[in-house]
Design a protein that fits this description.
4 domains, metal ion binding, ATP binding, about 425 residues, nine-stranded antiparallel sheet, about 30% helix, 12 helices, EC 6.3.4.13, 22 strands, Rossmann fold, alpha+beta, nucleotide-binding
Amino acid sequence: MKVLVVGSGGREHAIVTSISKSDKVSKIYCAPGNAGIAALAECVDIGVMDFDKLVAFAKDKAVDLVVVAPDDPLVAGAVDAFEAAGIRAFGPRANAAIIEGSKAFSKDLMKKYGIPTAAYENFTDADSALKYLETATFPIVLKADGLALGKGVLICNDLEEAKAGVKEIMLDKHFGSAGNTMVIEEFMTGREVSVLCFCDGTTIKPMTSAQDHKRAKDGDQGLNTGGMGTFSPSPFYTKEIDEYCMENIYKPTMAAMKAEGREFKGVLFCGLMMTPNGVKVLEYNARFGDPEAQVVLPRMKNDIIDVMEACIDGTLDKVDLQFEDNAAVCVVLASDGYPVSYEKGYPIHGLEKFDGKDDYFVFHAGTKFDGDQIVTNGGRVLGVTAKGKDLFEARANAYAATEWITFDNKYMRHDIGKAIDEQ
């Protein structure tokens, strides 16, 4: 098979790494890819939103399967474009990817079908939102409705903060058109957990659990980011919680989307909060998480091509999804100043130290070639992932491996997976 992966970050590097292990695959392309992906795939200079060029390339190269990884092209209909051209594509169509593309849609879906989530209201004008806040209980959460690179969520501790948040989202358009509609939601307390699920429109199969660290600085301080690190599995996500989620969240979500004429095929990312009143949905995403994919996929035993094809063909019920009985931790090496402003173009040293080490991975997120030298080219530069027999060993291994890599402006959190110490 020839496979084309659409995307250019650490998630895509993790996906390409998994695909490269399949005996069924003879050639991998990645558009646009990055310097790390280039070691496994032929990188093609086509943007993720340039559907006409992507389709033409896939036809020209007789690509057998396209994997659309990022949220923007999924929500905009990349899978629909490939399917219209007769090309098999993994990922939800646009009418299903709306579950991530519109927070207002997903909240309304959960309310309609009785899927547990935080109480909320949707607003399309700032005056109504401000009036509502006058009677609200704090802290409270403001969410831009549309895609905002994982950053369109504000937790406000008092009325003044909330008013400033409404201005930021709805009036100043800090997140662009994503803020045309805004969700105001009750603040939930508890432990967060991310569960990625393979879906074929009818059957849903959860992968192993993971937990992300969104804030830029140690101790969950600083601004929201795309994710500064992850660990898998979550020791707090028990078999009992998994069974509850399957019956009350995962299966009902699949059934709800089908009932709405929005059959969901691909990866459904369920962001969950384990509250004192039970597990509730924080948000849905319509794709592999980043950096969750970097700890979940290295632990998967199955041939990823078999699973993706089963999702497309509606035969996921026949797949025995299996994960290794171990743990993985990913620490993101970022450019100092991320997520606000940072410099690019610094040479990266030490990448070769990961060669031949089966339980260590360095997933490229923001890198490129400058001649023969790989240099920094983004806020999140690399994801250093390591396995271990348990989370403690995996965490120690991952942090040890971060020392193998050097570049100017290197920044990372030092407490990824620290929650496991509280077990």
